[in-house]
Design brief:
about 170 residues, 5-stranded mixed β-sheet
């Protein structure tokens, strides 16, 4: 069983605020601005969703982004590429087997832990969600801004199935 006080400030890419009625707002960010998805977020989201799912005091969860987008960019620099909003990441096949395994294990755990949250999860999509659109669309309710768009930019063009499955195995 998790307690809000124990995980509320535990994650550098996730801001959490909960009111007295048990409404938990989970805001994805990078240094307080729009989230740029990368290894740090990939490592933090699985245990964050687990903490949220194990806290019975969470009655409603609102998942949102910061600024004008939900998750629009990916940290390609950490994958030996150039940062930006492009739909094609560097060649993922150059990752060593340990990195591959950890990345896919984290990704699948992230989605399972999100789905294990018993409280209703509302995705408040404040703008484009080009990276991990599965986080929004697997929520129980999706409310999107008029300028929001949904895309799976890095997965399919790199031989990966939406939701971080690998169809080449």
């Amino acid at each position: 069983m998790s307690k809000f006080e124990d995980y509320a400030n535990k994650y550098s890419r996730i801001r959490m605020e909960r009111d007295d009625d048990g409404i938990l707002e989970v805001t994805l960010h990078t240094n307080g601005g729009t989230m740029v998805f990368g290894p740090e977020a990939h490592e933090q989201l699985p245990p964050a969703f687990l903490d949220i799912s194990q806290d019975p005091d969470n009655k409603i969860v609102i998942l949102t982004g910061t600024g004008d987008s939900f998750i629009e960019e990916v940290e390609t620099a950490t994958l030996k590429g150039t940062p930006g909003k492009g739909s094609r990441l560097p060649n993922w096949t150059k990752m060593d087997p340990h990195t591959w395994d950890r990345t896919f294990t984290n990704a699948k755990t992230m989605l399972v832990n999100l789905l294990n949250i018993e409280a209703p999860v509302i995705a408040a999509v404040n703008g484009p969600v080009n990276i991990h659109a599965d986080l929004a669309v697997l929520s129980d309710i999706v409310i999107a801004a008029e300028h929001a768009s949904f895309q799976d930019a890095p997965h399919y063009p790199n031989g990966l199935v939406f939701g971080d499955g690998d169809f080449r195995r």
